[in-house]
Sequence to fold (360 residues):
Amino acid sequence: MRTRRLLSVVALGVVPLLVGSCSSDSGGKAADKVASTATTAPAVTGPQTYTVVVDGPSTLGAENYVYGTFFPKTVSARPGDTLVFQNRSSNDIHTVTFGVKGDRSESPALVTKAGQPNPAVFGPCFTTQPAGPDVVSCPKSATPPEFTGQGFWNSGQILFPAAPPEAGPKTATVKIGAAVAPGTYTITCLLHPFMQSTLNVVNTDAERLAPAQVAAAADKELGEAKTQAPGLAVPANVPTANGATVTASWGNQLIAVNRFYPETVSIKAGQTVSWTDGSPYMPHTISFNPPFKSPDEPNAFLPTGAKSGAQFAGGVAHSGIFGPKAFFPVNGFSLTFTKAGTYPYLCLLHPGMAGTVQVG
Fold:
């Protein structure tokens, strides 16, 4: 997961994993959080602009981390304030979405029945009615409308900073409408099933932090996530009698490591390599000489060339999107290599994610 230019997916491929919800419940934990904020916040008056960090940077080819959350996890704002969401990932795309239930039961599917990226997910989509699994189109809108607290508000994909300018936006701006009722509203990324945060719409200036304090909280939370990433357990390399197995990414619900492990495998002609996704949510492709330059292109989500389980002596073999069974119909891909040589491959969705099969 540029024409609505994704890269990704993450980008993509997640099929039924979308989510979000919003409600006007200002009680319980939200009220406690607001109350504690009010005692420490400086005097901020008038409309404010807050920056929310989406994901975080990492070293391509060495780390390839994806931090699947928003920083800070909770932000308080008043009607008239503006939230600017900045994607700081090195290798993944995201959306900023309001108006989908917390269980994601009403989320639009990521992929249409024809196997193409859903325009209602990867492109901007703003409706006065709730979304649904069958939504595949949206009214045209030259600029994002204010968030009203109702309906479906989706930024479409926002790209990582290294993506070319023509590929698409790297930020999403949300203006909180004057009529939005105080309460808690869930913000989600439609592409990552565990990625969400909370907007508290509050009544008074004293219930908000200053933009600099929100930025500091974002930096602190991202820093804490960064300290966790190196400690994620690398998957076990399970030997097989007739080839090799490769894990495509690993991690937990917060952090994904978008790498192949092992990145290089050595087998004999006639043996098989099998790939399985080890992340709880992140989709991938196995792509040898793919005929696509980006996952935005038509049919890039679909298998092309040598199919899974086929014999392979070179040429095109593109798995299409696959991922964990909770969210994807297929988790895995395999090829039997019949000719000696070196076979490089990559994941079409994630920059820096590549591997090699050496056949002797």
In short: Residues 26 and 94 are 27 Å apart (CA to CA). The chain has three helices and 22 strands. Helices lie at 28-40, 119-122, 211-228. Confidence is low (pLDDT under 50) at residues 1-39.
